[in-house]
Amino acid sequence: MSFWKPGTERPQGRVVDDEEGGVLFLSGSHSSSSSSYGYASIEKQRQRLPVYKYRTAILYLVETHATTIVVGETGSGKTTQIPQYLKEAGWAAGGRLIACTQPRRLAVQTVASRVAEEMGVKLGDEVGYTIRFEDVTKPDVTVLKFLTDGVLLREMMDDPLLTKYSVIMVDEAHERSISTDILLGLLKKIQRRRPELRLIISSATIEAKSMSDFFRMRKKRREPENEEHGLEVEPAILSVEGRGFNVQINYAEEPVPDYVQAAVSTVLLIHEREPTGDVLLFLTGQDDIDAAVQLLSDEVQTNGKQSSGLIVLPLYSGLSRAEQELVFSPTPRGKRKVVISTNIAETSLTLEGVVYVVDSGFSKQRFYNPISDIENLVVAPISKASARQRAGRAGRVRPGKCYRLYTEEYFLKHMSNEGIPEIQRSNMVSCVIQLKALGIDNILGFDWPASPSPEAMIRALEILYSLGVLDDDAKLTSPTGFQVAEIPLDPMVSKMIIASSELGCSQEIITIAAVLSVQSIWISGRGMQKESDEAKLRFAAAEGDHVTFLNIYKGFHQSGKSSQWCHKNYINYHAMRKVLEVRDQLKRIAQRIGLVLKSCDGDMQAVRKAVCAGFFANACHLEAYSHNGMYKTLRGSQEVYIHPSSVLFRVNPKWVIYNSLVSTDRQYMRNVITIDPSWLLEAAPHFYQLLKPDSLH
DNA sequence: GAGCACTGC
C-alpha cells in the first residue's frame, strides 16, 4: 500500500476536521454509536437524536431572532424535528403554517411522511407536502407543510409576502441551488415588511458566517422597527452535531496522472486488504464510469482469485429505474459491492452499507458563458465542502475510510472552500422573469446571497426584450410578459406556446413543449443503438425532431398509452408518463391565461412558425461551401453541427432552428427543425432587422 | 456517427 500514506489522524478524526476545524460550529462530543436495535417508542427515538438537546435553545433563538441559522450534519435530525418543535411551541396556532423547504421532490415526500408518522397523523392532514403535480395538503387542516423551494417561489406569485406562514425553514441551503438563492433573497425582502416572520436557514457547512452577514438586518434610522418587536437583528447561529461515524482520510502521496486508473487500483487494494464493507467510488460521468466498470470487470475475469467477490455496479441518472435499483440490493454474504457513481450519490441518493469511499476529486459542473450565451458541462475540481460530503458517505453504518485521489497539499491549498453557487454558473433568463413577475423592478440591484455576473443579467434582459416579454423600461409586457411568467418553463418555450395560440396549433406545441422538458424519451443504452435508430426512423419527420415528437406522441396515444408499445419502439415509458403530466399542467395553465387550445390538423407550417416565434435566436444557416454539415448561427456566426441523434443528421437542410446546444469537441445542435428564413423577420423584426435581406436567402 | 453532473416549477 505504498501509494498511500496512512490518514492523518485529526482531532477526533472527524470528517469535518480541516484547518478551519476548531472554528465555532463543531461540537466535539458526539455519540459514535447511538444506533441501537430493538423496540423504542417513537418518542424515545426522537429524544435520541442529536438535535433533541438543543430543542429549548432552538425555540428560544427562533423566538428572539428574526433569522436563525442551524448548522447540522447529516443525521442530526434537524429536518424532521425542528418543524415539530415549532408546532409544539405554538407557531402553528391561529391558522398559521410552518413551512420547510427542500431542493428535491423526493426529499420533500420522504421527510413529510416520516414526520406524519412520528406525529401519528395521516399524511395530508396536519402534516402535508406540495411538489409539482402533487399537492398533499388540506386547507385549514395542514399546519406543517413540506415543499420544494421552487413551489414556494411559485406561491409567492399569488401571495408575495407569504402571509400564511409564521416560520419558514429553508433546508439544505448550503447546496446553493438557483431556487434556494432566489428564495433567500426574497425572504430577506419579506422580513422588512413582515418583522413577525421567522426564518430558519439550515445548512450542512460552515458557510453560516456569510449567510449570517447576508441576513443581518440593517437598522434604519428613526424607525427601529424590529426593536419594537424585541427581535435581535443579528442572526443567531447554532450548531448541531451529526450522528456519523469517524471517517479516516487518506490522501494520495503524489498527484495521480489518470484518476480512472488510480481509482480502479485503489478499489482493488481496498478489496485485497480491508475487511468487508461496500465501496463507493465518485467519478464524473457516464464515460468515466463505464470505463472503470470495464477495467474492474476485466480484472475480475483475468485475476479471478484476488478480485472474486466483487460486485461492480454503475450509478448515474441516465440509467433505467431497474438498473439504478440494483445498487440498493443488499450485498450477499462474503461479497463486496463497488458502486461507481456520479455526484448523484453525493446529495440525491444515500447508499447504506458503504464503508469505503474513493474520491476522484472531480465532478461535472455547468458553466455559462454570457458572451456566447452557451452553457457547457465541464469536468472541474470539487470543493472542500463536496470532498467532506463525499467522505461522510463512508461513515453511515460504522467507522469508515476515505481515499482521496489527490494530495493533502492540494486539498489544503488549492481546493476552494465552497463550490461556485449555481446562480453564477447559469443562464439567468428564467430567474429574471420570475423576479419581474414578483414585482422586483430593479433587477440589477437585487440583493442576492451571491450575485450573478452583470454580463449574464444584461444578456438575460436582452433576450427577454427580443422575445417581447420585457418592454423598453424593462417591465413585463401585457399580456405576453405576464403570460410567459405564468408558464413554468424556459421563456423561449413559453413564448412558443403563446405564439401557437395565435397560429392555431397550441395542442401540438404543448405536446412538443412537454417532450422538450423531459430529459430524453429514448431508451439509451450502448448495446441497442442500431435497433433504437431503426425505431426512430419509423417516426422520423422531414420537418425535423419536433414533428417527430408529435408522431411519437400520436403513436403512444393510439396505443392506449401502452408500456409494451414503448418497449417495442425503444421509447422510455416513464419519460412518456412524465410528458403526459407536464402536458396536462401546461394545458391547464394555457386555459387559465386565456390561450386558445386548438389543433392545426397536420398543418406543420403553423407548428414550425410557432417554434420560430420562440427560438428565432437559435436560427442557423448551412455553410454553402461546407461538405461536412457545418452551420453558422445567424446571431453570432458560431460554428455548429446537427447532432447525430437528430432525424435531420446528414439531411442538412439549408435553414434550421435548434432547441439547445451540446458542447463537446464540437458544438452540436440538439432537436432541430427546418424553417423558412422569412419567418425570422416576421417573428423578431427588431432582432433581425440589421441582417441584410439577401443574407436570408 | 455522438453522448446527457444534478435538480426544479
From TrEMBL:
Catalytic activity: ATP + H2O = ADP + phosphate + H(+)
Pfam family, one: HA2_C
Keyword ATP-binding: yes
The Helicase ATP-binding domain, residue ranges: 59-224
GO molecular function: ATP binding; ATP hydrolysis activity; RNA binding; RNA helicase activity
Transmembrane segments: none
Keywords: ATP-binding, Helicase, Hydrolase, Nucleotide-binding
Domain of life of the organism encoding this protein: Eukaryota
UniProt-listed InterPro entries: AAA_22 (IPR049945), DEAD-box_helicase_OB_fold (IPR011709), DNA/RNA_helicase_DEAH_CS (IPR002464), HA2_WH (IPR048333), Helicase-assoc_dom (IPR007502), Helicase_ATP-bd (IPR014001), Helicase_C-like (IPR001650), P-loop_NTPase (IPR027417)
This enzyme's EC code(s): 3.6.4.13
Stretches assigned to the Helicase C-terminal domain: 263-439
Protein name in UniProt: RNA helicase
Species annotation: Clitoria ternatea
